[in-house]
Design a protein that fits this description.
It is built from 9 helices and 20 strands. By secondary structure, it is an alpha/beta fold. It is globular and about 75 Å long. It binds zinc ion.
Length: 435
């Protein structure tokens, strides 16, 4: 596969996954097309060797795995992990706010969001709604309005002369986007709009009532290239759908002879402590069902290796002083190994060495990131997964700029270089040579 073709599938995945629910739905469809068998947590599992499976939890997290034809469970699993969520504005339950001639939506800030970039974008809405059906049962539907639907206008500079020097955003007062404006006619009702959208996207169902929803605001602009030679990718949600896409495409192509596993978790941006987050029981519970015997499972975990993927900070040309001077990170220069003395990243010398060997075999270079010693460091799902499972783990990611903005940037070749590393990992037998 060449980089252009790879990026085309990435762009389509990014654009059609405005929420974690849509990301999981798209991963499910991809894996089904690749011959994976769908499992349900509530059913009994009969797993066979040389078969691939996936299971998702509450639309927000998914685990896919192959029970290798040529390997035993105690040979260990090649695991990769990423997260499905991104910082955003989440619509409140009683959403509609009528202000003069406007209908606005009350929103909460989800995760560590950069708020200024949300103003003056062409926003849309997507998410899931829980409906009561005609027979009184509950059903969940995904919806995606797709088209520009909302706007969050800035206050003109004439009313805020400090806008470029030190203005602050009040999360309660300043973030409600405008959904409709009317002078004479009646304003629409938000829930009626949702009902209409459910019927439009799911024409064969008759819902009685929407009882609750998880609706996200997102930027409707498609991913694109920038830079004279198209060397930069700009898109929403590169953190961390870029890595979900790498994991999905790599496990879809992985050798069926080997034990491989992909975990895409929700709620990383607010601490991972949920049923679908990496701090929850999902991965442990699935591993218990793949390898029911506790002794074999522990031996398997001791032989396994986890590559935790989440984007890394590239050096920003306007803020060179923010980066550790001996560890500059460049776009288009290969996956970044993330290291932190206080285990904010799970990388250690052994896991770092293993990843470097994988990159060498894939004929790609890698980079090493550490935060400046006088600045606090972010984290990933790597350390908590390593702690829960006791598994060798490395934290890596594609170099990116403007992390947690509504529009983020990475190198033209960075997603593909990370994919090449993971593709190599999913075909290598490195763990037989562990110290
Ligand atoms: Zn992330």
């Amino acid at each position: 596969m060449n980089i252009d073709r790879y990026n085309k599938t990435l762009f389509s995945f990014l654009h059609s996954s405005p929420t974690p629910f849509h990301a999981v739905d798209n991963i499910e469809k991809y894996l089904l097309a690749k011959g994976f068998n769908q499992l349900q947590e509530k059913e009994q599992w009969q797993l066979e060797n040389a078969q691939s499976y996936f299971v998702s939890r509450e639309n927000g997290a998914i685990i896919a795995f192959t029970k290798g034809e040529k390997e035993h469970p105690e040979d260990g699993y090649r695991m990769v992990a990423a997260h499905t969520d991104s910082p955003c504005l989440l619509v409140k339950p009683r959403a509609g706010i009528q202000t003069d001639s406007y209908l606005q939506l009350g929103v909460e800030v989800y995760g560590g969001c950069l708020l200024h970039p949300w103003f003056d974008r062409d926003l849309s809405l997507a998410g899931r709604v829980c409906c009561e059906m005609k027979d009184k049962s509950l059903k969940i539907f995904l919806i995606n309005f797709q088209r520009p639907l909302l706007t969050l206008p800035s206050i003109a500079i004439h009313f805020n002369r400090e806008a470029n020097t030190g203005s602050t955003i009040n999360k309660q007062k300043h973030l409600a986007p405008i959904l409709a404006q009317s002078v004479n006619e009646q304003l629409p009702e938000f829930e009626a709009l949702l009902s209409r959208q459910v019927t439009q996207e799911h024409p064969n169902v008759t819902i009685r009532k929407i009882l609750a929803f998880d609706i996200f605001c997102f930027d409707s602009q498609k991913p694109c290239y920038t830079g004279v030679q198209k060397e930069i990718i700009s898109s929403a949600r590169l953190d961390n759908l870029l890595s979900c896409h790498v994991g999905m495409t790599a496990i879809g192509k992985a050798d069926k002879k080997l034990n491989t596993l992909l975990f895409c978790a929700n709620h990383e941006e607010n601490g991972s402590s949920s049923a679908t987050g990496a701090g929850g029981s999902f991965l442990d519970s699935v591993l218990e069902r793949i390898i029911p015997d506790p002794e074999t499972r522990r031996r398997s975990l001791a032989q396994s290796f986890l590559i935790s993927m989440d984007n890394a900070h590239a050096t920003h040309p306007n803020f060179l002083e923010k980066q550790e001077p001996e560890h500059k990170i460049y776009l288009n220069k290969g996956p970044v190994i993330k290291i932190n003395a206080n285990q904010r990243y799970a990388t250690n010398s052994l896991s770092s060495a293993l990843f470097k060997k994988i990159c060498k075999k894939a004929k790609i270079s890698s980079q090493e990131f550490v935060m400046r010693s006088d600045m606090p460091c972010g984290s990933t799902i790597g350390p908590m997964t390593a702690a829960r499972l006791g598994i060798k783990t490395v934290d890596v990611g594609a170099a990116s700029l403007a992390m947690h903005s509504i529009r983020e940037h990475t190198g033209f070749s960075d997603p593909f270089l990370l994919y090449q590393a993971i593709e190599q990992f999913f075909t290598s037998s490195f763990h037989h040579r562990l110290p």
